[in-house]
Known about the structure:
Layout: H1 11-39, H2 41-77, H3 84-108, H4 110-116, H5 124-153, H6 157-181, H7 186-211, H8 221-226, H9 229-259, H10 262-274, H11 276-298, H12 302-329, H13 331-335, H14 342-374, H15 379-402, H16 407-431
Helix pairs in contact: 1-2, 1-6, 1-11, 2-3, 2-5, 2-9, 2-10, 2-11, 3-5, 4-5, 5-7, 6-7, 9-15, 10-14, 11-12, 11-14, 12-14, 14-16, 15-16
Amino acid sequence: MPQHALRTESLFQLAWPIFLQNATHSVVVLVDMWFFAHLSDKIAGTVGAVIPIIWMGAFVIPVFAGTGVSVASQYMGAKQYDKVVPTYMMNLCCTATMGALFGLGVWMFSDQIGVWMGLTHELQPIASSYLGGMSVYFVFMGVLVAYNAVLSSRGMTQWLMYNSFVVASVNLGLASLFVLGFGWGLRGVVTASCISVGAALLLSMRWVHLRLEIRFHLKGAVRDMLGVVRPMLRIGVSNALEPFSYSVQQILLSTIVISLGVTAMASHNYAGRAQMFQVTFSVTLALASQILMGHWMGARRFEDVDRLFWKVIRATTTVALVYATGVWLFGAAVIGIFTTDPAMITLGKSLLLVAVFYEPARAVNIVSGFALKTVGDARFPLIVGMTFIWGILPVIFAVNRLHPLSLVGLWMFFAADEIIRAFINLWRWRSGRWRSMGITVVDPHADPATIEPLAGEAQA
Length: 460
């Protein structure tokens, strides 16, 4: 394969390994939750209450790493190959620093976070133990996501799939050994997670440096990385701010869930995990289309980008509706995987009914968010996301103060947020303004014969 070639332009060939990768990750999360529930509903509920802290790093850092996919793909599509490796290096510096700082912060404040969120003295030690152990996870993850971005930008999604199988196997085997064999309890689940992500990092480094033979250089590295920092920050900051704000929102809303008691905490956690496979499908197609859109934007293939967007929207919304409906119809069995408590099962099934109405809208927001950021229109989803994320908080807290919300009522606010944003994002894409926003794109309406070739294009 040529040094900067895209492996395939087939959405299916790119997507199915990503789906298996993300589905395997979802299985890992569900297995971990099963182990927590096996230990006790109290542990599962507490972990669920503080998990927005973990998701803040686990969501924000990989989303920022997607900047490397977008920018490197556009440079490759535009045949500006001299900027590809510096983009990978800058991406690695950013995500590794983010992972280390986030892990340090979680470790330093692990004893206080549960108190700030309103956990009782009985539950606080559980939260402290979980957060303190998971801080190590982010040190490895910050480096891993940058290496995975290199593979994604080249379309080598099957290697990411192999990595996920390694993570799942190591995690399941070690968690079973540590929890069921050694009796380490919560500490055993956390230790297994940290070791498995470390194993995945070593494997990704092998793929990048030995199989793809990509070399990171020191001579002139600062100069080269500064040459790509502007588009990296233009897309990356927007990429990171929205999920960061969303994570903060979820942390604040968790204080309401915590105030409703252990039953609500556990039910909220179980119902949320039950939706993971639908979210996995949407993220899978969004990531696969991100690879193609990046290359096509660099090559100015705007009509291909537009057709792909609507194709993915139709697929993800259909799957979301069918999946969410099925999970709701079999809600008792689904929630029963985690608990036998009748109150939790009843409440969880009510939450799954609300999800039927908002999961298709969430699929639209996932796909359109990735797409708009990939093609360079990163500011719009940031503004919309920040407006709704911070705008809905005072409304929820005001309503809850006047008339205390049930957990179902809280989820109905989530549904309204997702549905309204979906319509706005679709309107933005249909407006076509994104056609002039790629990092290598000039006027999309200009006569191609009058457009000067991009750097390296004339020689290709």
